[in-house]
Design goal:
mainly beta; four-stranded antiparallel beta sheet
């Protein structure tokens, strides 16, 4: 049945996005906020390095092979000490990357094997140019950036996540890219995580995607918030109490919906890179 969602697009307050391993990352510009009544979980949790992380969301699509390697060998010149976080990294020997180890402290270490979008645990678990960040049990490799041009994953990935300096401020000149993922399928996120849609409350008013913790509750199951629902769902109230509602792709007619359902637009259309997402009802 056709309906216009009362929930609206999810807009996250920038006070809480990904948290880097040994320090705290806070949400990107102070321009994000959420009006759905259900804040997507997982954008603020504990440090990845402090916990053993579980894997990324029900993907089926492999992680992007976009690791950034350092651009200098031993003795190479670098404008930052001891090394530069932003790509192309410099200041570290070949085969090593520049990593944050707590607050603003940086170090050179042998780069890890995990690529952008893959689950991780530990300061050096990711390839050079990436940071293992997220909430407890839900960390994944995210790309360092200074502008949207540094975020190459896709239209849902923008340079918006600020990194805490551990003293209430943010690390200047470097942020993290939001995760490029597909909301109805969670492709692009670690297994067990959901892909949520976010939007800026002012400024450029951009929409973007991000990976958030998810539960196991199926379509129609009762829920308290979206973290209870399985990937591809969110927690909303269709008029009979909160339940897990399936996300769908409005732009393609909502193939994710059942035989007697329509793919409905949110009251504030959720459009990322020209593709509109909605809900089945």
């Amino acid at each position: 049945m056709k309906n216009t969602a009362r929930w609206g697009i999810w807009i996250v307050t920038a006070a809480a996005l990904l948290v880097p391993l040994a320090s705290c990352a806070r949400g990107g510009s102070d321009r994000m906020a959420m009006d759905s009544g259900v804040i997507p979980p997982g954008l603020d949790g504990g440090t990845a390095q402090d916990t053993g992380m579980t894997g990324p969301t029900d993907t089926g699509v492999g992680p992007r092979d976009t690791g950034v390697v350092t651009d200098t060998g031993v003795g190479g010149s670098c404008s930052e000490t001891p090394c530069r976080l932003l790509p192309p990294q410099c200041g570290c020997p070949a085969g090593q990357g520049c990593y944050l180890t707590g607050g603003t402290e940086r170090t050179c270490a042998t780069q890890g094997p995990e690529r952008e979008g893959q689950a991780c645990s530990g300061v050096t678990a990711c390839q050079a140019g990436l940071l293992c960040a997220g909430s407890a049990g839900a960390a994944f490799c995210s790309r360092f950036c200074n502008s949207d041009a540094d975020c190459t994953g896709g239209p849902g990935s923008i340079c918006i996540i600020e990194l805490s300096d551990g003293m209430g401020g943010s690390i200047p000149g470097v942020r993290l890219c939001s995760a490029q993922c597909v909301p109805p399928t969670a492709n692009g996120c670690p297994t067990g995580m959901a892909c949520s849609i976010f939007g800026e409350s002012d400024g450029a008013m951009r929409t973007f995607t991000g990976c958030t913790p998810a539960g196991t509750a199926p379509t129609g199951a009762s829920c308290v918030d979206s973290e209870d629902c399985s990937p591809g769902h969110f927690c909303g109230d269709p008029g009979t109490g909160n339940e897990c509602i399936r996300l769908c792709t409005v732009s393609t007619g909502g193939p994710e919906c059942g035989a007697f359902e329509d793919c409905n637009s949110f009251s504030d259309p959720a459009i990322v890179g020209g593709t509109e997402y909605g809900f089945c009802f």
